[in-house]
Write a structure and sequence with these properties.
Layout (H helix, E strand, L loop, with lengths): L16 H20 L12 E2 L10 E6 L5 E3 L2 E2 L5 H9 L5 E7 L5 H11 L5 E5 L2 E2 L1
Parallel strand pairs: 1-7, 2-5, 5-6
Antiparallel strand pairs: 2-3, 3-4
């Protein structure tokens, strides 16, 4: 078999379209994985707005969510009102105090929020805070 020198050589080409596809796939993976890493402690509710709200910096905290239909949750676990004190007390453990953030929907009856806060005051060492949206 003889090689012919009269055939033109095909120049080497680098096709970058598959490389761009791979880069976009990796970028999509990192974006989606970073979205799932965001820390979402409470359940989504429509919080009331307040212009004087302050950020609470405390290590040990519990989030009590009162949904619009009246359901109670402690850190995403559904809890009846009668068990609220015990559940938050277990979260406090041996610590001297715990910050309990009440995350109540703005359409929840004021009386129910007061009832929840009254139960939370029975927990020894509990400091109460109310979650709001900035104006």
């Amino acid at each position: 078999m003889q090689l012919r020198d009269d055939e033109p050589d095909i120049p080497a080409q680098i096709n970058i379209v598959p490389m761009i596809d791979v880069i976009f796939a990796i970028l999509t993976f990192f974006i989606m994985s970073s979205l799932s890493l965001t820390r979402s402690e409470g359940l989504p509710v429509n919080l009331p707005q307040a212009s004087t709200g302050q950020l609470q910096q405390q290590n040990l905290k519990a989030l009590v969510t009162v949904k619009a239909n009246g359901e109670l949750f402690v850190n995403r676990d559904r809890v009846p009102l009668e068990q609220l004190t015990n559940q938050v007390g277990q979260l406090r453990g041996d610590q001297a105090e715990i910050v309990v953030i009440v995350n109540a929907d703005e359409s929840v009856d004021h009386g129910q929020v007061v009832e929840v806060m009254d139960e939370l005051r029975k927990v020894r060492g509990a400091k109460l805070a109310i979650a709001t949206e900035p104006e």
